[in-house]
Specification:
alpha+beta; 3-stranded mixed sheet; two-stranded antiparallel ribbon; 7 strands; globular; Jann2411-like fold; 6 helices
Length: 194
Amino acid sequence: MEIHGSHEHHVGLDSALDFINTLDLDDGQLVEHLQGPADAAAWFADHGLSHGSATKPWTAADLEHVRHVRAALREVVDAVVDGRGPEPGAVRVVNETLEARAPARLELDGEVVRVGHGHAHSPVDDALARVADTITDELATGRPDRFRVCANDQCRWTFFDSSPTGRRRWCDMETCGNRAKAARHRAKLKATTA
């Protein structure tokens, strides 16, 4: 008997955090990247978490659900970064999202056994559960102390600090980090001339 893996919808931690960042700040202004249901469907399809065109179109209710779960995941990550307990409502939403995921299952095709997976009742629930699962796995078995929120108050992106020292403060040194350095330099020059 042969055993094979079959396709699996998996999301890495960076992509899961990028999902949270689909609502971000740009120079202090909130920017919503999931403007409509098609944007949300495309994001999940592009990240291999849904079958894209193989499913029915996502609805306004699906988009609202996606945004609701995103806010709950953001609250959990922010709470970890801040060293506080998350809001109970956010924990409830994340738990409900995780419960929607269908477990792995064995599939028999003649003499070949595949490890497959079922899908949740809704492709939206299924995709969201996989994102939530990635983040909660890191909380449970990884290094949650490496979750970060960019120190630039005009950005506030979530990211995972994989640097050797674990002291990264900026989502990206080329943008937010350089802006902070430039601002410090200007302030120092201003203080010197004053």
